[in-house]
Amino acid sequence: LNPKVSPFQRRFVGEVRRCEDMEKTFTFLQQELRAAGRVPGPCPENPRAPAAREALRVQEQSEQLAQELREVTRNRASLRAHLRDLRQYLHVLREGQRFTSLPAPLGSPPRPRALSEREPILDPSLHHHLERKINFVAGVIHPWRVTAFERLLWRACRGYLVASFVEMPEPMEDPATGESITWVIFLISYWGEQIGQKIRKISDCFHCQAYPYPESEASRADTITRLHGEIQELSVTLEETEKYLAEVLDKVALALPTWRVQVQKMKAIYLVLNQCSFDVTEKCLIAEVWCPVQDLTQVQDALRQGSYQSGSSVECFVQRVPTSESPPTLIRTNKFTAGFQSIVDAYGVASYQEVNPAPYAIITFPFIFAIMFGDVGHGLLMFLFALWMVLYEDSPRLRQGTNEIWLTFFEGRYLILLMGAFSIYTGFIYNECFSKATTIFPSAWSVATMANHSSWSSAYLATHPSLTLDPNVTGVFRGPYPFGIDPIWSLATNHLNFLNSFKMKMSVVLGIVHMGFGVVLGVFNHVHFQQRHRLVLEFLPEMVFLLALFGYLVFLIFYKWIKFSAADSRVAPSILIHFIDMFLFTSNAENRPLYPGQVPVQMVLVVLALASVPVLLLGTPLYRWCRQRTPRTVRPGAPLATGEQEPLLEGQEAGNSVNATKEDVESGGHSPDAEHVDFTEIFMHQAIHTIEYCLG
């Protein structure tokens, strides 16, 4: 009711912004829960929207928990990084000891000289000559970069170094990706300061983690001992940090679901209040709403209760306001009908007080699906799957799935249940279970009678892989199968010709009946809205077009079934050729007529069908145009048109709608331009309807 007011200038924009800030905090808390491998559970109850003081408390507690989580998470990350560095340094010193260990003291037994990667780099006899000239660079490198790193060192330093590489004994986390990898320890010994600068620059370029390497063995031993102590202390500190983080996450997981629901309700209320307008005194909010008459008492009770709980000095009240707007459509559904109503709404929501086709679709949609799908085995699997979802529909694990495809299946569980049940029925009609025929009753065809009548010999059977059963022979065909298709057709070589013809004709018959039923439903709309001209100008041409062409086709199908039997089936004409000749206004001498006078009858039907198209296209627009040109007198104080419903207005006197002009109210909601009709729009709408109907 205040469209001209900027969203940033509305009354409760500050409260909405506070709710959005809290939602950002909740999103951070939820991300931390998921990072810790926890899934926040559903809200255990249906909490009410919090009062202002309660909302401040929720905001304060959530921000405090978020701040604690940030600090603890940051401390844990720094402790982990420091612990990882200490462990890597410890492994570097341990592995370096094997390369640079001093020779054994005098008097000890000589060590065998075997070629090994663990042998000291320096020859013990030269150690005292070169001790002051050799320097070391030690650290760790990613295993993917080792080859390129070694090649570049050799080319840049021209061999004035000795590089040793060995894998770390245990895998560690990569700080960049978070993956666990096995790092490679390198120890480079070199001569000269310039070579050392090159080595350090190259190691920096390859993102190596370098560590100081003590020159003396005693210093290395002291460093290893010190690292052991630091690692032990740091592990204890990290364990305590993890415990405290788990406690904070427990608090978040307990409170977050309820907080989210409360803040969502609070935000929704303020968004609605921002759409209301103030009265002259700016002490009362005014809202115009549509409300079903059936729920009017509940709205009044809720307003009265809200006034009492808020302690307001002005009581909320409801007043009807006249209007010429078309009310929105409300269709009440339950868990069974919701899926079918969603399918109907996907094609278009019915206008106010129009016939709702969804109740009929509860039967027709699964049945027509089953005509296509019909199979006892597959239908039974579908039925059992849907029955499992129906029986356990109250299970939280099924209801709160995050997979969109699964939620689609779950919402349509009753639809799938009926589709499976009807598929079992049509599967028995087609006599198919996992595409195999079943012999529930004995076959009505007798092979033995045909064999006795034809006197098939062994030589005849050897030269004829296919045998023909003639229903004209007495005793070969003993009447229709009790239910569905005879199982002997599954063995016949011409079973596809028979089943395709049967299913195609059945589809035409059921499809035309279904379409005719849909057209008949429109009669109730025309009568209810007192648009009786549409019965003549729309319903009648539609039925003539449908029945004159495809209704006649259904008649031909049944007529041919009744007139011709197995005895004269070879001379039965083709319905398809007759139907083609019907549109061409011709006859075929080779295709005998089904009944005398068939060609004139078909010509008349085609002419009627073609003549109904311009009536359907131009009838309603011309009628509206003629009505517009005819002057009419309107009786003062006339009631509203049938089907109109008045909206409800909170906190306003009768007859003073915020969005209505004075003339609208005085004329009962009908402004002088209410009867103005855009004939271009009407004609375009009717043209689209005609093309859609005829093509359909």
Automatic annotation (TrEMBL):
The chain crosses the membrane at residues 367-392, 412-430, 508-527, 539-559, 601-623. Its main location: membrane. Residues 636-672 are annotated as: Disordered. InterPro entries: V-ATPase_116kDa_su, V-type_ATPase_116kDa_su_euka. Pfam families: V_ATPase_I. Residues 55-82 form a coiled coil. GO terms for cellular component: plasma membrane; vacuolar proton-transporting V-type ATPase, V0 domain. Residues 661-672 have a biased composition (Basic and acidic residues). Signal peptide: none annotated. Keywords: Coiled coil, Hydrogen ion transport, Ion transport, Membrane, Transmembrane, Transmembrane helix, Transport. It is found in: Membrane. Belongs to the V-ATPase 116 kDa subunit family. Essential component of the vacuolar proton pump (V-ATPase), a multimeric enzyme that catalyzes the translocation of protons across the membranes. Required for assembly and activity of the V-ATPase. This is V-type proton ATPase subunit a. It comes from Horornis vulcanius.
